[in-house]
Amino acid sequence: MFENLTEKLSSTFKKLKGHGRLSERNIEETLREVRMSMLEADVHFRVVKEFLEKVRQRALGREVQESLTPAQQFIKIVNEELTRLMGGENSEMDLSGSPPAIVMLVGLQGSGKTTTAAKLAKYLGQKGRKSYLVPADTRRPAAIEQLKVLGEQLGVEVYDSRGKGDPVKICRKAREEAEAEAKGIDTLIIDTGGRLHIDEELMGELERIKEKIEPREILLVADAMTGQDAINVAGRFNEALDIDGVILTKMEGDARGGAALTIRALTGKPIKFVGTGEKLGALEPFCPERMASRILGMGDVLSLIEKAEAVVEQKTAEELARRVQRNLFTLEDFREQLRLIRKMGPLESLVEMIPGAGKLMKGVKDLRPAEEELKRTEAIINSMSRKERVNPSILNGSRRLRIARGSGTRVEDVNRLVKNYQQTKKLIQRMNKSGVKGIPRGIMPF
Amino acid sequence: MRILGGFFKRLQKQEPEEGWRKSLKEGLAKTRRALVEGVDDLIKRRKEIDQGVREELEELLIAADIGVKTSGRLLETAQEMVSKQESAGLGLLKEYLKEAIKEVLVGKGKGLEIGVEKPLVIMMVGVNGVGKTTTIGKIASQFSAKGLKVMLVAADTFRAAAIDQLRVWAERAGAEFISQQPGSDPAAVVFDALEAARARGMDMVVVDTAGRLHTKTNLMDELKKIKRVMGKKLPGAPQEILLVLDATTGQNAVPQAKLFDETLGITGIILTKLDGTAKGGVIVAIANELTVPIRLIGIGERIEDLREFDPEQFVEALF
Fold this sequence. Notes:
The structure holds two protein chains of two kinds. Chain A is α/β, with parallel strands linked by helices. Chain A has helices at 5-15, 24-40, 45-59, 70-85, 113-126, 143-154, 167-180, 200-213, 230-241, 258-267, 288-296, 301-311, 314-325, 331-343, 347-353, 357-360, 368-382, 386-390, 397-407, 411-433, and strands at residues 101-106, 131-136, 157-158, 187-192, 217-223, 245-249, 271-275, 283-285. Residues 1-15 of chain B have low confidence and may be disordered. Helices cover 52% and strands 13% of the residues of chain B. By secondary structure, chain B is α/β, with parallel strands linked by helices. Chain B has helices at residues 2-12, 18-27, 29-45, 51-63, 68-84, 93-105, 132-145, 162-173, 186-199, 217-233, 253-264, 282-289, 311-318, and strands at 120-125, 150-155, 176-178, 204-209, 240-246, 268-272, 294-298, 306-308. Chain B starts with a helix and ends with a helix. In chain B, strands 3-2-4-1-5-6-7-8 form an eight-stranded mixed beta sheet, sandwiched between helices. The radius of gyration of chain B is 21 Å and the shape is elongated. The interface between A and B is large, with 46 and 45 residues.
């Protein structure tokens, strides 16, 4: 549905053929693509602006890592900055202190407070805590009923607030009950009332609850599909209640969740959990990196980049790039490349990580033939002498026949390989002439 | 032609009451403050339309959830108008923007009417938490008040207490109510309900379905089944499949509508919670990117705050 940012960026860079490095000029266009992508993901435009400025500064004047293309390099910067903006690492709830620890959930109507309350009770139950669910939403028809049903499903006790009008009173009573009776309850989860939108009455009610009950954690429950309004919602709740964090719900949809970034950037409050499904177990601690990829609509390029970084040592890559530039690229170097690719894992799993590749590869049933081809190519090169690898021009008919026999292939295969190599070398020559500096990397055009 | 069409449409309809117009204005106050006053400010500060103005304007539009694509269209239209005018000033920019928005919205409204075929069966769908049940309650109240026999059907057997919530609404509205046990097959509930509706001579049947994210194929298939079962029991039913969208949803509203439409063939959109947001612009994005008409809009919590969407009136209230 969304055009993939990585695809867009790659095509932007393709247009800029001949510019292997990040420069002022090619960055402008790519920054625009990132901007669009973020706005489409509902990130607040002010956040987008500041963010892009930061990326621009970091990207400019940065040397290109040899294992990555400029596009990948750029995405990596964008992603790292995004992750950093989102708080770097995930932050836990603090429920220490004398029990019962009180968690208060606030948020707009329909954001998923009640379901989240139940999910949280289950999550904490798995951590050995015993929760008491308190329905303080006295306005929505059947809200109390809903929490009761969920509590029953979980085997978690729910405070019976039926007919006790004032939410503050409900909360106080519930706490007394939790403290007094020997129920072993150590956590109170308060499901507060929501409104269609923020109004003074609601805020007043929540402030009173906060003051009287002194919750240890006030968490804002927000819908991942929220648009540009996220800033108002989070801002107002934070102003009135000084929230401790955010739970982002409905993450299993295809909303890209720019709201997460907006809220984090503009309130400085961490996102603590994400709701990822209708089942009560579908609550996970928040993972900034994953969210970053999602906002950008990136697929798992990052893992791919990580894999490349893991196998390609900086030095080796630099050495290779130098050789390529000086037109010294030999079959020896080529074999090194092949080995690196194979070190990264089976082709199939690599391809899966490329966004959009799924569609592209639909017609291809499996990649084993390609995998075989790689192996065969390597075998052919292995059967050459070092002299032949460094200087393939000496490969005459009898040498080729020997190599084919040695590698268990046919002479045609050897011929094809040599021809491809020569073409690639020509290509490199041409590129060097036109002033390309760090190319080519990664998979050679064989 | 368009203008004439709008004129006749207005004549046919009863004159909109002053009260509604006022609440519409109030409901859109937040969006107006953010968008229209932003444009006013821009006009005051800048002399002519240049890249800077374009960008600021785009930001205003995007901040109102109009979306990147639709904002682009509006800007183009407005700029064309600017280039046609004689003076280079920005004075008319607001007018142009208003015209551009009108151009997108006109023809995208369509009320909810009961035809000759009875009962009119409406199936309500949407993602979780958009306000389906509440919207159904309001529709039931309004049509009941007109003296029609309305039946509400609780086919959301999944969400805890959804049945109770709908029952409360049915009681308030004085509507008939059909439900089964929580967790029962929604298609079966609907099948029985339509049988009862025919027997009792209902004018209108509104079916509440469980909220589901549009990306969940199995749950979307369940909706298809419910629809199929309705058609079997009562040929032609459901006459209306209405998608309820939350106005605070950002750009995801568009893929939501597209997927629901692909799966079910929706006949209209109901946009709720328009008053809660300064970002009422999502309605423009929806109108621009979808062919499905917008049937009703919700601008408040009261029953009468859910009304037919009239594009002209809407734009007038916004500006």
